[in-house]
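PROTEIN FOLDING TASK:
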Amino acid sequence: MPSTARPVVLDLFSGAGGFSEGFRQAGFHSLAATDIDPSAGATYALNHSKHGTEFILGDIADPAIKERIYAAVGKRELDAVIGGPPCQGFSQVRNHARLIDDPRNVLYRHYVSIIRELQPRTFVMENVPGLENIGGGSVRKQILEDLQQDGAYRVESRVVDAAAFGVPQSRLRILFIGVRSDLNVEPEFPESPVSGGLPVLERRPLKKGWSYRHRESPETVRPLATLLDPEADKLVTVEQAIGDLEWLRPSQRLVRKPSNEAVEYQDGPSSAYQSARRMGSTALYNADVPSIREDTVVRLAGIPQGGNFRDLSAALSARYLTGKKWGPELGRASLSRKYFFAYRRLHPQMVSWTLNTKADCVFHYDGTRALTVREFARLHSFDDSYHFLAGDRHSRYRQVGNAVPPLLARAIGRTIAKILAAAKQPVGSAVSG
């Protein structure tokens, strides 16, 4: 789409820019974006300033920051506002008080106020899927009421799984999509190209331990065939996503500072997904593997592909295995229940579990190591040309783990573009870039 005809979007709580990247791929121009995290903001600016996006660093609750947002938008009519405001105050429901007034929901309130002030044609708010059922659905109902703004918007919600849109990771999110009432168009949601239920892993007992394999049913046979086809990109396995990076190895010594140096690809792409992610990239950034504790090396040797803490023997569940002390001792001789989902080894022929912000939330399916930031990004559907070169090592994993997967965002963006086309009104004013 020519730059003069691209619809314009404002990205609130943008983080490192996954939402903006997906909307860019869907044909939108991100006019401006804002976030309070300086490292995530630097990553956003690195990847989006070349497209003419203004990044505004600061607290959205600060009136000065909000004025900068309004100034960046100017007199343009926004085609969409996107973002996922934190909603900590929604985790508890007390009586029937309006949760928008909970002080812990201050960021959500500012999201609503910006929608009210700018009156975009559409908006998308994404958040954790638990919002759907908190308080027996009362939280979801109140959010819908807040976003409808006394009839100014038609708003609906739905929980979607990123894996159903080509992301090699199961990641459930709730989407609230609003359409300004004067457009006379109903909200729509992206529809997955995959029919039937998504394949799942089944844990089966063996004489010594457990094995993991796909559980088939009449609803999953066809999706399973798609998942295991390396030339298909509707469903993508972990191996199809990062199998060309198996040669990466952890550092032999502790390296605290992440590298900003590029390395050469050593293997060619072996799947359609790998080819797509490499497009436009001639070298590999964010490919340094973090060092790993001796105890973790020993434990991972006892965990099969697709397994986790439940596969550890009593001996491997001991608090310390090699004599090296790490973390708080807590007076326990064995690992506590908080490690129940720890030491998760990915399964190569399955999508990844939901990635969080920690480097050790999952481990490689074959190598005895954690994943690199680049492998995190691959499982999140970022292209290799999207660089995470700002912040320390922990920050870079957090930037990826907190992001909206670009392929999910692209599917949402294409749906919003369809809504705008159905409204039969011109998209936002001309932009450069």
User: Anything to note?
Assistant: Confidence is low (pLDDT under 50) at residues 429-433. The longest strand covers residues 153-161. The domain at 3-193+407-423 is CATH 3.40.50.150 (Rossmann fold). The two ends are 12 Å apart (CA to CA).
